[in-house]
Amino acid sequence: MTESIRQLRHVLALCEHRNYRRAAESVGLTQSALSVSIRRLEEDYGVPLFERGHSGVSATEFGEILARTARETLTRIDQARREVELLSNLESGQVVIGSDPWMADDIVAPSLVRLLRKYPKLRFRLRTHSWDELQEDLLAHNVDVYVGSPFENLDASIRTQTFALSSPVIICRHDHPLTLLPTLYVKDVLPYPLLVPKLPSWYLDWLGQQYSTNRSSEELHDLFLRSEDLTVIRRIVRETDAVTASLVNTFPADLSPTDFAMLDIADLSHIASPGIIATRSDRPIAGATQGFIDEVLREIESLNARLGTSPSE
Questions:
Q1: Phi/psi of residue 195, each to 5°?
Q2: Could you tell me whether strands 145-148 and 158-165 are parallel, antiparallel, or unpaired per DSSP bridges?
Q3: What's the topology of domain 169-268?
Q4: Fewest CB atoms less than 10 Å from the CB: which of 37, 106, 153, 295?
């Protein structure tokens, strides 16, 4: 690590800890060595960067400018280092995946299982949020690849591969009143509290077209709970009349058919659930990222083969 990069880390450490001793410990220096590093920076810039007060050390206005630049610079350096690792060797490195909860269980998880068996030295981080938040993460270089529902407004700097899954289904407790209906329609589901991650925009658009009303498409549903935590959702569904949904028409491996029922929705049976795999178009796809994408495509192909739905587009 070059001296200038070390000094930038020293500035950020002192901004965070507001104490020379604790900041020095966080970067593996003695207190005197950190003081020398900061003093040299102040001499280089010709202005005071920090000042001592009753509440601790604080950055001056000059120090704030340098700290802001340090954060941006070190973020880019760390991103570059990670990209070099990924491009150089599929056997090592770290990939940051973004996925909405709708597809994390059924597509991302089995893809990671196969990658772990093939490349145990690879490291992954999974960020599970709604699709709109993850587009911002992708644009900000906080994730390498996104798998999930399509973005509402696709940015020009994002490349995508599209695919289609089965039509949406409803999941409810095994003795729910909906299980008694010979045929289930969306209107039958609307009276029951719905527990879901953020609803995909394509579904809300379809719902608004079906029900001409002053209420928004989200308001048509009784959205008791919106959460990215599927474990919480499924526990409440198992013990109440609330329902949840799935974009993949296969019974989740961690759910028991004695506790839950999966119901087809007749007026959605002709509509496939769209999805995308998205990466930044202004950078090459690293080896480990491409390895993950390949496994995702295999999983989608396998799902569609079992369900008899259309292949990836």
A1: -120, 110
A2: unpaired
A3: D-Maltodextrin-Binding Protein; domain 2 (3.40.190)
A4: 153
